[in-house]
């Protein structure tokens, strides 16, 4: 096991540091103290060849403002909040409207744009980078002085990354965090993800309106087969369709799926050609599937031109805009209560 670090760039006089966690099998996770961004994950294919399986850049300058949140931890609230407004315990709050009149992913100054304090922890069986960020009362409009801790954990004997989240606030607030990595199991982005096969143990997805907000309707997937991933299906089956919900979000998926409680929630992503498989286990109630419908542009990832569907996000989190839908799992964090969440990404 090993953790190494080196300077990756600089912002506002602060050095940006890149940390790399490597186990004895060569499995490797690299991340930054800026936004907890995961820049690279090296995972083996069926023949043991280690290649990168997440979208990321080689230089700090290429990240720029990171408008697509590549690899970052997002919060205080992942997803959208209608008009950036909500009420808790009789008090009204107004957040930044940073996405067509809605609040998105914690606002422009959210967790993804913070330089986090870091600590490296090495044990006999694990390498850990621990990130800590203090978000003061009123930051981006959210109530409460919030202390957030994120741990990236790599085990010596398993090709897996565990992300653990811990938080507390001195006022009742909203908290809904996730990691926004874009996975592509082909290895070094040889192909898009449209032929990846995905399994999600979910009987319901959230219908979206034209503002990309949940309408409140949880649609049974047996009534909408293109959203039924319970037995596995390729992404292409959806991206090639004219389904109004798929066309609404740009020719793919950008939808929350409520995970079934009756079974252990294991999400499985497979690329048959490389032989790579990713298993995702989480304590969160939902996952947002985003198939990178809008990331095409005049830039590249490690020499590969950016294009739509070059990766997909599996954002394990609470439901977007849950504060306005009482039948959704709550994202309210009570004052002085402890928040804990964990997601495991296992490559097999």
TrEMBL record:
Enzymatic class: isomerase
Keyword set, alphabetical order: Carbohydrate metabolism, Isomerase
InterPro entries hit by this protein: Ald1_epimerase_CS, Aldose_1-epimerase, Aldose_1/G6P_1-epimerase, Gal_mutarotase_sf_dom, Galactose_mutarotase-like, GH-type_carb-bd
Pathway membership, UniProt: Carbohydrate metabolism; hexose metabolism
GO MF, one example: aldose 1-epimerase activity
Catalysis performed (reactions): alpha-D-glucose = beta-D-glucose
Gene3D superfamilies: 2.70.98.10
Positions of beta-D-galactose binding: 180-182, 254
Alphabetical GO biological process terms: galactose catabolic process via UDP-galactose, Leloir pathway; glucose metabolic process
PROSITE patterns linked to this entry: ALDOSE_1_EPIMERASE
Keyword Transcription regulation (UniProt): no
Claim: Isomerase is one of the keywords in the record: yes
EC number: 5.1.3.3
Family: Belongs to the aldose epimerase family.
Entry protein name: Aldose 1-epimerase
Lineage, top ranks: Bacteria, Bacillati, Bacillota, Bacilli, Bacillales
